[in-house]
Amino acid sequence: MTKALEISKLCKTYGNGFQALKSVSITVEQGDFFALLGPNGAGKSTTLGIVSSLVNKTSGRVSIFGYDLETELVKAKTCLGVVPQEFNFNQFEKVGDILITQAGYYGIPAEEAKESADYYLKKLGLWEKRDIPSRMLSGGMKRRLMIARALVHKPKLLILDEPTAGVDIELRRSMWKFLQELNEQGTTIILTTHYLEEAESLCRNIAIIDKGEILENTSMKSLLKTLNIETFILETDRILVEAPDLFGFVSRINVEGALEVDVKKDQNINQLFECLKSFDWVVTSLRSKSNRLEELFLGLLQKDKQGSEI
Amino acid sequence: MTARQIWVAFSTIVVKEIRRFTRIWVQTLVPPAIMMVLYFVIFGNLIGSRIGEMGGFDYMEFIVPGLIMMSVITNSYANVVSSFFGMKFQGSIEEILVSPVPNWVVLTGYVMGGVGRGLAVGFIVTLLSLGFTNLHIEHVGVTASVILLTAILFSLGGFINAVYATKFDDISIVPTFILTPLTYLGGVFYSISLLPEFWQVISKFNPILYMVNTFRYGILGVSDVSIFFAYSMIIGFIVLLFSFSLHLLNKGQGIRS
Hints:
heterodimer; A: alpha/beta; Rossmann fold; Alpha-Beta Plaits; 2 domains; 6-stranded mixed beta sheet; 4-stranded antiparallel beta sheet; 10 helices; 14 strands; 35% helix; B: mainly alpha; two-stranded antiparallel ribbon; 11 helices; 2 strands
């Protein structure tokens, strides 16, 4: 089956000599929900910029649904919808006009464009705002407008560059739901985000990029399997001053006075509870200390940093 | 893209551009109208009545074609330079860059937007001039074609300026330091036959002189320059600037990193 996106040996050196991408290769299958993660300045936006034709590549090959960006640019662009990181619509245009104009750039006649625009305005909760200038929207609405604009021509591949940055939790969840629905309907989605919880919840495959190189490119499942330790925070009915000896579990008391316990891959939480039961402690709450993906992400970056220092 | 899709994309850009300058009509259509009325009153009525005839015509009649052409030149240029640079500045240029619309359609669309504003202002100024003089058009074809070609040419000029501009100052440098002096020295207010021979020769290096005179020829039937040469020059410049603008777009100058 044709790949939704194929990036092969992509390199980019900017005019000032900065090498942003060093032979990046990524493949995204049709129907995938794919995360491209990396710290600031890792090369995520440059990669997506080249795919979106906003950045000129130095070398390498990019194809979207089998259409090469060099030889079949028009067909490739037709398959693609882009939600950039920064608000980049005309602040003086009306919300509805922005969508209809965008559809027009794809050669969609006004009537059809209006139908599609109306659908996404309603779907993303912007219908009431369709006749006001876009600058008068709230931050969250502006984000939704950018998603609606990217979808108005019904692309097969949607790229979202930090779509939920600065969005409150309620809206973020509703955007996740919308994106999941869209993906279930067949749209391939590529996402970059700094909220790793977002990537873990939504994405099936993942690539981690740092300093212009791909550090990891695998399925979310297999990546999470590589996690060796998970830390849990337990609240008990006791006031703890010192960490107890938990027979094989490494533990400590955190600044809030709660018990933190590291659970290794070959251990299980039942053993931990049995241990606590023997002390006659009542566990009142249990939560994971941090996002599992976050642990892995930081671990990979740390490994890369150590590697480059050697 | 099919021919129909290209037409939709082209008309989308043109409609968007026309909507832009009509939405802010107080900034785009009213000021040139006020300025031209002041020119008609001060230069045409007050000073012009003391000057007498120019090139065999009442001074007001003589300056009207030049002033109409001046408003078309400045407004077609200003429309494209401010609109395209505004899109670059806001980042909304990316809406077009990610879409499949071909570069020549983008360029033609913006140029037509500039032509639209240039002609709209030209029409308003022409209507206003009727309050000061009787306008009789000698050669309708010449009048219409030269004003259209001039609007195209200066829209292309505005586009190139916008591509290279990196800050708002950059979009006013060319109109202030190049366009305005060339327009004022391009025979809007006088016939170059009044100048000493040396300055007549120098004036003939000013391309705006040919546009103003060809337009004046269309309306009054008199010109200081060869009409054939003027048309050749204007068309030559259009071809040159269109090719250069397209090259800049294909290269992504100022819009792609």
